[in-house]
Amino acid sequence: MGLMRMAARTAVVAGTATAVSGRVAHKQNEKYADQAAAQQAAAAPAAPAAPAEDDSMAKIKQLADLHAQGILSDEEFAAAKAKALGI
Length: 87
What we know:
mainly alpha, 0% strand, 2 domains
């Protein structure tokens, strides 16, 4: 009988150790996944400020085309250009 008890006890201890190590591994994987997600979010480049300049430059080019076509007078073109530049 002593041998059966020892085998049963060993099986219980081994099963418990397996369950605990599985939970520890799962928690570590979650932790590393959270850290990786945080690093990716931090590494994502911020939106550049260039689009604001591109918008104003596109607006000025559009105004220049209208001026060249004779749709805008010199005064209208100058006023619209100053407005687009924020002057």
